[in-house]
Amino acid sequence: MVSALAMMALYAQFGFTKILGLGHSLWVPLLIVVLLAIPNASGLFQSYLLLWSGLTTISLIFDGIDVWTYFTS
Hints:
The chain is built from three helices and no strands. It is mainly alpha-helical. The termini are far apart.
């Protein structure tokens, strides 16, 4: 919910720009929690956590690139 509110606030302030990637910064703590939970999981749930972690990491990399581009250009 906090992330969604951050995205709405960023959109209201800056419009549809690359700075919107900042709204996903709250995913970083969640990613850390999930990564720490993977060794304790098993079966399909562990596979799900691995897949989710990989996709979220890729998304955060793209967001980081977008935010970096916004501030450096």
